[in-house]
Amino acid sequence: MTERELYYDVVVVGAGNAALSAAMAALEQGVRVGVLEKAPKAERGGNSTLTGHMRFAYNSVEDLIALIDDPSEHDIRMMADLLPRRTEADLWDEIMHVTEGQADQELLEIHVRESYRTVRWLREKGHSWVPSYANPTTGNIVSMNGGGYGLQQRNFAYLERHNVPIHYETAATELIVDDRGRVVGVRALDPEGYVVFRAKAVVLACGGFEGNPEMRARYLGPRWDTVKMRGVPYNTGDGLKMALEIGAMPYGSWSSCHASPQDYNRPPFSLPSSMTIGGNEWNRYAYPFSIMVNLDGRRFVDEADAIRALTYAKMGRAILAQPGGIAFQIFDAKVRRRGLLPPNYDKATGERANTLEELAEKLGINVKNFVETVRTFNAACRPGEYNPNPFRPDGKRTEGIYPPKSNYAMPIDEPPFEGYAVCCGITFTFGGLKVDPKTCQVQHVAGRPIPGLYTAGEMLGGLWHWNYPSGAGMMAGATFGRIAGTSAGRAAREAGP
Q: How many CB atoms lie within 10 A of CB 385?
């Protein structure tokens, strides 16, 4: 039986933020675009639906006002006071700091330079932002209106208005290559069987391998096959495997990932539909205002070597390395009184007690070691003003203990005490494919571009190494998705009929 065949100028594999940005950009080139989404329609949109903001450069509050529908005078004053600018130099420095100088500088230069331009491009597509400075842990001055879920729903609506077909429950399985090495389509599996999507250019933007336990163990190491996912279960490395099979060059940090503190009893993954039904919020991001201890009652990490936005993506790895892959965030009454515990902690897995001994017993922590740890920590907290600002560190640190606490170090001495159990939750993997930064065309191991193949999003390697600043992935997805889609659209147009 002959396989079904469909024809487009550009086929985009994936339906997250990067993929839909690529589809919209390709559409601007006047070509026919088709989108393949592995998930069913009810769960469409990938990890992008589960996030909240993009981290971009801006020079003034006026740049933010241009993104917001009718900001109030109070909002404008608060934004000007808390974070009046994040210049391109600031964004560059943040990313080079958290990646320990390993970020590909050509990619990073484009990411930084194009971030605000891309945000304005999205604004032209119907998106808007809202002030979000009030949350004590995010460090986000503005967030996407409706979060990532709202952004994605608007992206889908835009493509549907422009008659772009979106093929749901369609899993790409193989890139089709002609005898000259050009990618000319994708073979995929949908509910009716195999189907061939012929195209003049293909954009792969279907996520990393965080949903694949075998690949996690192979590339990230022992115990990573057991972690829970903060994201969707559909990102199983399909696009990466297809590209590697035709000689694409692996690039970036394949041994590291975005991994953050999550409630110990969170489900094994999250789905986009959870954003519409008011489910539990499983992130546990108040840790900079805590001490974190393991089952032995010992601290194991500097909880605040920078603001939360620059540390949370590496904290999961530190937690996974502890006995049982579990840790406990410990707070006292001062933290709650100051409003530093987000509302989601009211439903968190944990205990409260009036003494440290009782709290340790309830949590199953070594009591003697825990009490000693807290007392040693309290004695090491240096005098100074405690300023738990989510946008900048306060420098209130410990002295004479290891690991240190570099900021927000306040004694844990006022009952009732609270402790919450956390585990490592993986969001996405950092390893990807090598591209030409200016076009996002995938490079071959032979040192030349692969004709007809482009990539963006989690599949683009080279930006993130070991750590990651909050919101930067969504920004990179939109920026390089736009570049990949534009390049693919131009290539398809130039290929002729």
A: 7
